[in-house]
Design goal:
With 105 residues, the chain is of the alpha+beta class. The protein has a single domain (2-103), classed as SH3 type barrels, CATH 2.30.30. It has two helices and six strands, in the order ββαββββα. A six-stranded antiparallel β-sheet has the order 4-5-3-2-1-6. The mean pLDDT is 91.
Length: 105
């Protein structure tokens, strides 16, 4: 999905892809969704919880990208601009592992 993702310093936001990491029940019952940031900056060493998407084309992304499980944000569903795709099962499993790592689960 594409959402206005806020800058961590609170100075604004930028439309960018994100992965919904909240569960389906929460997504139905809440007016908010929990998202992990997606970035096209894939070069350099990975930080804890980051995963370079193997199937980024299947996720309907334009360029190679990685999910940053350590960059979570909660936004109202109305802030979601559009849904662009889904992660493959392997990429989803890797993102879930990254979330467990950065959240200490």
């Amino acid at each position: 999905m594409v959402v206005l993702y806020p800058f961590s310093d609170g100075s604004g936001s930028k439309p960018r892809p994100a992965v919904v990491v909240s569960d389906d029940l929460t997504n139905v019952q809440s007016r908010d969704v929990i998202l992990a940031q997606v970035t096209s900056r894939v070069n350099g060493p990975l930080q804890p919880g980051e995963h370079v998407l193997v199937d980024w084309r299947a996720a309907n992304l334009d360029v190679p990208s990685k999910v940053k499980a350590g960059r979570l944000v909660t936004v109202e569903k109305g802030e979601v601009k559009r849904v662009i795709g889904r992660l493959s099962p392997d990429d989803l499993a890797a993102v879930q592992a990254g979330l467990r790592k950065v959240l200490g689960l």
